Amino acid sequence: MMFLAILFAFSVCFLLILIRLIAGKTTYDRILAANSIGTIVVLAISIHGFYMGRPEFIDISIVYALINFIGTVAVLKLFDKGKLGDK
Amino acid sequence: MITEIIINAFLVSFMLVIALFIVNTRKVIFTILLAGTYSLVAALMFVSLDAVDVAFTEASVGAGISTILFLAALSFLPKEEVQESFNKNNIFALSICLLIGGLLIWASYDLPMVGNENNPVHQHLVSDFIEGSKNHIGIPNVVTAILASYRGYDTFGETIVIYTAGLAVFILLYNRTLKETNKSVKNEISKK
Amino acid sequence: MINEIFGVWNYWIVFTLMMIGLYIVISKKSLLKKVVGLAIFQTSVFLLYITFGKIAGGTAPIITNNSEEIYSNPLPHVLILTAIVVGVATTALGLALIVRINKAYGSINEDEISAVDLVDYHEKFSEKKNK
Amino acid sequence: MIDSIINYSSIASLILGILFILIGSIGILRLPDVFSRIHASGMIDTAGTAFIILGMCLQSGISLITAKLIFIGIFIFFTSPITGHVTANLARKKGLKPISNNKGETL
What we know:
The complex is a heterotetramer of chains A (87), B (192), C (131) and D (107).
Chain A: H1 2-23, H2 27-52, H3 59-81
Chain C: H1 2-27, H2 31-53, H3 75-105, H4 110-130
Helix pairs in contact in C: 1-2, 2-3
Chain D: H1 2-30, H2 34-60, H3 64-93
C-alpha cells in the first residue's frame, strides 16, 4: 500500500513537470524538464517492481538512466554546435 | 487487482496529453523531445503491463536510438516548420480520423475486458509454451525461449530486414562527390 | 461500474492515440513530422497488443520457483519485440530519404517540393516546344 | 525488533525522498528562470534520488538488487551535475540572463 501511495505521488510530480515541459518559455527549460521526467521515470520503475513484489527488473531502470543522460547531452550538443558529428 | 488497471489508465492518459501537444508544435527540436518523453512513458506502461522485455527494448531502441537518429537527421534539416493555417484539407483529414476512431471505439465494446483471465487470447498455446520452455529448453525467461527457439526463423528474417534497411540508408546517403574526387586523383596520378 | 469503465479505458485511449498519429501523417506538411506521426501510430499498436496479453494479478513471464504463480501471456510480447526493431529500421530509412530529399530540393515541406517539381516540368516542356 | 527498526527507517527515508522530489517539481514549475530551475532539478536528482534509493535498499536487504540500486544511485549522482552544468553553461553562452532580485530585474 505504501508503494502505491509513492507511485501516486510520483504521478503528481510527473504532471507538475509535464506542465513545465509543455509551457516552458525557452528550450533550456524544456530540456531540463525532460531530464527530470527521465529521473522520475527511473525511480518509478524501481518502485513499481517493489509494488508488484518482483524487484528483479531494476535492470530496466539502469538502461533508462544511461539513455536519459546520453539523450540529454545529445540534444544540448546539437543545440550548441548545430550538428552531432565532429566534422 | 483493480489498482493495476487504474495505474495503466493514468499512464495512458499522460501519453494522450503528450501526443496532443506533439500535433501543435512548430519547433522541430521540441517535437523530438516530446517524442522521446512519449516513448519513455510508453515503456513505463509496458513495465506495468508485465512486458519486461518489451520495456527493455523500447527503452534502448525507442527512447534512445530513435531520438539520436532524429537529432542526427535534424542537423541536416531546417530547424523550424513553415506556419500552416487551418484549411480545407485539415477538415477533411479530421473528419476521416473522427470517422475511423468512432468506428474503432464502437467496436471496442465487443473486445474482452482488460486483464480478464478467461479471455480467448489466454486459452490456447500459452500453457504449452510455458511448460515447454521449462522442460525442453531450460531457460526461465519464456519470451527469450519463444523468440530464439520456437520462432528462430522469424528472428532470422528480422535481422535480414534490418540489414536491408541499413544497406538502403547507406545507398541513399552515399556521397557521390567522393567517387568523382577519387577518379580525379587517379587521373592525376596516372598523368604523373 | 468502475470496473467496466476502466476495463475498456485502455482501448479507448489507444484508439485515440492511433487516430492522432493518422491525423499527423495525413494533414501535416512537414515530412519530419510525418515520421514522428508514424512513430506514434506504431507505439499505440504495440500498446494494444500488450494490453491483450495482460492478466490481472499475473506477473512477468519469467519462471520462478513458486509453482502457483500466474504469468501474463508471452506471445504478444514476442510479436512486439520483433515489431519494435523493424519500426526503428523504418524510421531510419524514412529519415535517410528525408535528408536526401532536402539535399535535392532544399526543403522538406510538401507544398514547396511539389512547386519545385512543377517549375521543373514547365521548363522541360518549354524546351521541347522551342526545339 | 531490528526488523521493525529497519522497516520504519526505510519508510521514513522513502517519505523524505518523496517530499524532496515534490518540492523539486514544484520548484521546476514555479521558479522564474532557467538558472533557478536548474537548482530545483538538482534537488530531485541528488536528495530525492538518494533518499528513495536508500529506502529501497533497506527494504530489499543484502542482495543483488541492492547492488543494482546502488549502481543506479552512483550513476545519477555523477551524471546529473554534468547535465545541469552543460545546460547552465549553454544558456549563459546563448545570452540568457539570470534574474537578480525579486523585482524581476536582470543582472
